[in-house]
Amino acid sequence: MQQGNLKYNSKQNNVIPFIPEGDFYFTKGVEAFQKRKFDIAIKWLRKATEAKPNDPLYQCQMSIIYTEVGAYHTANQLLTNVLKSEEYVDCYYLLANNYAHLGLLHDAKKYALTYLDKESDGDFSEEAESLLDLIDIDEDDEKSDWDLEDEDELLIYQETVFYHMENMEWEKAIPLIEEMMIVFPEHKMAKHDYTHALFFSGNEEKAVEMELDIIKEDPNSLYSHTNLALFYYQLGQKQEYEKNIQALLNVYPIHEQQKLRIAVTMARTAYYNEACNRFRSLNKGTVKSHPSYFRWYSIAAFHHGEPSKALIIWKEGCKKFPNLAMEEVPWQE
């Protein structure tokens, strides 16, 4: 099961069923969504939600569009806002699906279980169970109570850290991640972001030491292997680099964020041919919100012997991200 194949999306024409009769804005938004004109669809649905701000159906449909374009944090904010005002059970599955895409599997499992607990025979019960089957989390994980305000705070941290990490603003990312690790100690991904930011801000020894401690606890950690492969490559420790990159060569994750992480790591460690193969396999609609996709795909394509393609990818990224446009063409540095 591909995580993006929501039941909403698997129905004919990829729309939520039971469109309210006569709602012009919603209908126009659905029509644009059917044609995959997502920017236009969002504009129409915003009008629909302005007309009926308390209609959870409209908020959920808008969240699905954001999921389709890879804006998972924005989609989750919409769904969280719906749950603050009413118990619209479908939101829990949609949140689970989005968290799975983000690689936050603990949260994905939590929301999927919540959905099944509240709607064991619901429209998404099969999808929720399939999602749980794909999540490799220990069954004895704590099922602690959680607060939607905490989730909202987590989203703000994630959005801000994501921005700084993608733009390689390590000094800005580090204090935020340190706060995040204190407030949300169960989110393991923050530790990997922290070691990554530490390494590239000059604290290389501490970064390697921390990541080695993490991988001792979880020898199969994808993010530990990507970080350590990159760290050792930068440090010129070929044997250790090869050990970690080899651990990634036969790994083909389900989630696009994890696929992108591997592709970027291979591009950054001069594994250009394999990196190009990994980039080509990505769902562009899901990862195009990442500047790193355009930066490192263009570099990999250039060194793979495709300079024209590299330039096209780079120019597309520059149009989308002003910060990229201020950089030099990366393979000419």
TrEMBL record:
Signal peptide: none annotated. This is Tetratricopeptide repeat protein. Keywords: TPR repeat. It comes from the Bacteria. TPR repeats lie at residues 22-55. InterPro entries: TPR-like_helical_dom_sf, TPR_rpt. It comes from Virgibacillus profundi. Gene3D superfamilies: Tetratricopeptide repeat domain. Pfam families: TPR_8. SUPFAM superfamilies: TPR-like (SSF48452).
